[in-house]
Specification:
The chain is mainly alpha-helical. Helices cover about 55% and strands about 10% of the residues. Strands 2-1-3 form a three-stranded antiparallel β-sheet. A hairpin with a 2-residue loop joins strand 1 (about 70-75) and strand 2 (about 80-85). Helix 4 (about 95-110) runs parallel beside helix 7 (about 170-190).
Length: about 240
């Protein structure tokens, strides 16, 4: 009488090919731990590159827009009209100042860790938001040109006429939006970004090695200790 053993759904033709196939399927189906560990590093590098690009580009755009003409008009003076123009820095100095703050915060992100990095990233985001608000509020402001009209006409109650605005305030707002996005990326992925090397921090000097005791049975070590100004007797 021949006893039949259950094959559990796996028929081996006798050459072991079924067992080899099962092992291969198991190995190929198992996830690679190295690829899983490398995924956060790749996303961290991508977010770092995008944040640096957005932050630097946004600050450059905001600074450039602040130096351009935002508004123009005319003032009535004796004998006719006098043309007036106002740059972004004449209207408001907030975008330029916050752009510099944003650049400093973008660099400082790499100098701090943990809670400090979160605080600096929040400052970066707030700088961008402040630029957006200041630029949009000042896009239709005529205060700077009214002051120039009063100076040109000699009348403190004079106002600018034929007032018009350019698109540079909105360009500054776009620069602020880029800085805001850089700050949000730093808040979300900043924990995966690299930091300054610890050897540049204070208190990381290696302790000096203590002098090895002199072997009294070796005369050459006694002479070397005497040359160094040490007492070879250890007293």
């Amino acid at each position: 009488m021949v006893e039949r053993r259950p094959d559990h759904g796996l028929t081996d033709p006798g050459d072991g090919s079924a067992g080899v196939q099962a092992i291969v399927e198991y190995v190929t189906a198992a996830p690679d731990p190295r690829s899983e560990a490398a995924a956060p590093a790749r996303s961290g590098r991508r977010s770092l590159a995008v944040a640096l690009l957005f932050g630097a580009l946004g600050a450059a755009v905001a600074l450039l827009a602040s130096r351009q003409r935002w508004a123009e008009g005319t003032a009535t003076v004796a004998g006719g009209t006098f043309p007036l123009t106002a740059k972004g820095s004449d209207v408001t100095g907030v975008p330029a100042a916050l752009a510099i703050v944003g650049l400093a915060a973008l660099v400082a992100v790499f100098a701090v860790r943990r809670a400090g990095r979160v605080a600096v990233a929040a400052l970066l985001a707030l700088s961008g938001a402040g630029i957006v608000v200041a630029a949009l509020v000042s896009a239709s402001d005529s205060t700077a040109l009214d002051e120039k009209a009063a100076q040109a006409s000699g009348d403190t109650s004079a106002t600018v006429a034929a007032l018009s605005h350019t698109g540079w305030p909105y360009a500054a707002a776009v620069g602020g939006l880029l800085i805001l996005l850089a700050g949000l990326l730093a808040l979300r992925f900043g924990g995966r970004w690299p930091a300054m090397s610890g050897r540049y921090e204070r208190g990381t000097d290696r302790p000096r090695r203590s002098a090895r005791p002199v072997d009294p049975e070796r005369p050459e070590e006694i002479w070397k200790a005497l040359d160094r100004g040490e007492d070879p007797t250890g007293a």
